[in-house]
Each structure stands twice: as C-alpha cells, then as structure tokens.
Amino acid sequence: QVQLVESGGGLVQLGGSLRLSCVLSGSTFRLYNMGWYRQAPGKQRELVAAITSGGSTDYVDYAKGRFIISRDNAKNTVYLQMNSLKPEDTAVYYCNANFIGVNFWGRGTQVTVSS
Considering 7, 25, 77, 95, which has the largest number of Cβ atoms within 10 A of its Cβ? Predict the structure, then answer.
C-alpha cells in the first residue's frame, strides 16, 4: 500500500528556512500529483502548494515567493523549501499524494516558527 513519510520539520526562528521532504513508497511516485498541506491549532487543514505529475506547480497566495515545491521522481520524493518563515507558518505540515481521485496522507511533521 501507499505510504508517505514526511521529515524536515522543527523549530526555527523568524526569517529562517526549512526544507520538508516526503517519500512515497508502495507505488509509482511519478504518476501522482503531490501536495503539501498544513494545519494550525484550531484551524482546518489547508493546501499550501501542489505539483502535478508533469511538474506544474501551484501555491496559495501566502506561499508565493517564499515557498518552493519540487519533486525528484528518481528518489520518490517531494520537497517543500520554506524561506522567510513567520510565526503564522507554525503548523503540522502534511504530504498528500493523489492519483485518479484517490488521496493518501502522511502523518505530518511539525513546523514551529518562533519570534
């Protein structure tokens, strides 16, 4: 079965950077559209950035210019480079894989930005 494992979260200061990674196993990674979502305490999970199987990317407005999503099909991995981090970026970040309408989720990685 498909498994997603995120890594790279942690505690960072205002203005710092983190790179999240998500490895997919159990299926053919290159076929999947991939996304990063986040969920802050008391809020709904929301899409941050997405990348299609063909490499097209899309970002929520607050991520544009600060975050970069990328994928390495040879490594079955999707990345989220996050720069200029703000306290409001504090959340659990989840990796999502979608193929023909079927969604798979990782367990998430905590990102905490201190001021």
Answer: 95
